[in-house]
Amino acid sequence: MAITLTMPALSPTMETGTLSKWLVKEGDVVESGTVLAEIETDKATMEFESIDDGVVGKIFVAEGAENVPVGELIAVLLEDGEDASVIDGIASAASAPTAAVPAPAAAAAAPAPAPVAAAPAPVATIAPPVPVSAPKASGERVFASPLAKRIAEQNGYDIAVIPGTGPRGRVVKSDVENYTPAAAPVAMSGSVSMDGDTPFEDVKLSNMRKTIAKRLTESKQTVPHFYLSVDIELDNLLAARKQLNAMSDEYKISVNDFVIKACAAGLMKVPAANVQYMGDTMRQFKRADISVAVAIEGGLITPVIRGADQKGLRQISTETKDLAKRAHTGKLAPEEYAGGTFSISNMGMMGVKQFDAVINPPQAAILAVGAGEPRPVVKNGELTVATVMTVTLSCDHRAIDGSVGAEYLAAVKLFLEQPSAMLL
Question: I need a surface site. Which of 37, 59, 197, 412 has the fewest CB within 10 A?
Fold first, then answer.
């Protein structure tokens, strides 16, 4: 029996994907584990593997196709000896919902897949967007999904002027995300700026960059941030690190590994900081799952060290290096970068002294870590030099009050300045 391949959900938030590259062609023999394609999600570019043996009978979605809905047919595998004529029946079944969409009753009764199948057809025939004032004057209803309305409101868009690609011109989520005010001037491209003769080039945004832009805009607009900074002396930590690394060539513990462990230990000492704001409730976690920001091509991804409070420095170091390596090659599984109760963004290795990080919702806090550097300090009334690092805690004031944030930051400072305290 022919095997249908559909656009997979490669991340918990993925609704559509870009089929970046096919690594097979029609007629190729594939086995379980063969990489069929590279798919760009809202998080990363990931490999799509076959779980069956067979022959690539038909590819339905061309390489480079964007906004392919999850669950849409992208290819068919034929089993050994199977006739290619079965492909026509599969293709007909996959496109059957398209004919039913124009009928109002069918459109109203159809679940989510119906708009997906119908989307290509209405795009070519959709009427121009209604002027902003027209719906108010005529009382004409604007058809839009609740999610599309919410996103439009958050971005300050008038939903009435956004062209819809759903059934009967319904405005859906992707329409709002792809909408640009004053689209005509922006769409113009060339080598000369509208404001002068400055050369420029328009670079198309990846799905990851679009997601980052949307999520962080929502974070700054909806999450009341406040910031707390503290200086931390690292001399004891650096001495401990040197001793530990001298004990074996099998591992090399970094300062960042100590930071991860200290943040996890701090969340256990101050559990009021290990929370998420849930509207009418506060979710308090019993474990410290630390998300670590990793810069990759085209954006950021945050693999998670789960249960970091229960792990030693060596295990944290091993896991962090493995996750970072696979993040750069697009090999992370969705569960390895989803979730997390607290985030760390370390730009110290880039020479950044201090910065304020944006909270990654639904988390309630993120620690921005600066560079450790020799600075003058006063000890026992005398001026001396110590290695000092500035860290800044960004907190969601709906979930974490200033006193709780200060208590947590004091705990992190204690654990980093006296690493042996993490053994208690």
Answer: 197
